[in-house]
Design brief:
The structure is a single chain. The chain has about 250 residues and is an all-alpha fold. A two-stranded antiparallel sheet has the order 1-2. Helix 3 packs across helix 9, helix 4 packs antiparallel against helix 8 and helix 5 runs antiparallel to helix 6. The radius of gyration is 23 Å and the shape is globular.
Length: about 250
């Protein structure tokens, strides 16, 4: 295919996409108006299924299959990172020397670590009740663990971060989401259809399968972020080329 033909194909594709976007925007409700059909339907479905946080109801109930795709993209990114950044024959592992940390940094990092971890777990656990959820809380939990790197040193982080366990947790969380979806098929419904009682509105056990899917996402995101950072930090801190001290 010539360069000119490729540009024509690209132009035709962009023109088609632009036409679809314009057609979609024409039918949107006016900004600031009182008519919001999609929002009204999502809110009614959320309340009917005892999920106080409408965003969580959309993510883990009304479009739970799409969320599985988003989770799988992150899972695939972790697999790719582990494969690409693995230690090769031309590399060796060098234990990093302890680094002196300023006392104020050490003090405040250690003080905020348990608070950050608790906040992350709270955001995950209350995802179906209040703003937040597995995606946001998982990142906060992973961030809390890495405050130990700031407060002490890399070796202290390694002691609480066995990468192999987090890789297993990442895969287990992905599998938990899929198995929960298959449960809907086993009872004669659709994939990822709710199979549990909706429970009492505005409690931790409300929302049917939403809390389970939300927790699986929280576990997967936290584990994935830990594994990703571990692989990149290993390359920056520990892995050296066999010929010299140049990082690879």
């Amino acid at each position: 295919m010539s360069r000119r033909l490729r540009l024509w194909v690209l132009g035709a594709g962009l023109a088609g996409l632009a036409a679809l976007l314009v057609a979609a925007c024409v039918r949107l409700p006016a900004f600031g108006g009182t008519r919001h059909p999609y929002g009204a339907m999502a809110t009614r479905a959320s309340l009917a299924r005892h999920t106080a946080n409408v965003v969580a109801a959309v993510n883990f109930d009304q479009r739970a299959f799409d969320t599985l795709g988003e989770e799988s993209i992150l899972f695939a990114a972790v697999l790719g990172t582990v494969a690409l950044l693995r230690q090769t024959r031309g590399e060796r592992e060098v234990r990093p020397a302890p680094v002196r940390v300023a006392r104020p940094v050490r003090r405040y990092a250690l003080l905020t670590l348990p608070v950050t971890l608790l906040i992350g777990l709270y955001v995950v656990a209350h995802g179906q009740l209040s703003p937040g959820g597995g995606f946001q809380g998982g990142v906060v939990v992973a961030t809390a663990l890495h405050l130990l790197y700031i407060a002490v040193d890399y070796r202290a982080l390694e002691r609480v971060r066995p990468v192999g366990m987090y890789e297993i947790a990442d895969a287990a969380a992905e599998g938990c989401y899929v198995v929960t979806g298959l449960a809907g098929l086993l009872v004669g419904g659709a994939f990822l259809a709710n199979v549990l009682p909706y429970g009492t509105f505005n409690t931790l056990t409300s929302g049917g399968t939403v809390p389970i899917l939300n927790a699986a996402i929280g576990m997967e995101v936290a584990s994935a972020v830990v594994v990703l950072l571990a692989r990149f930090l290993d390359q920056a801190v520990e892995i050296r080329s066999a010929e010299g001290d140049e990082s690879t």
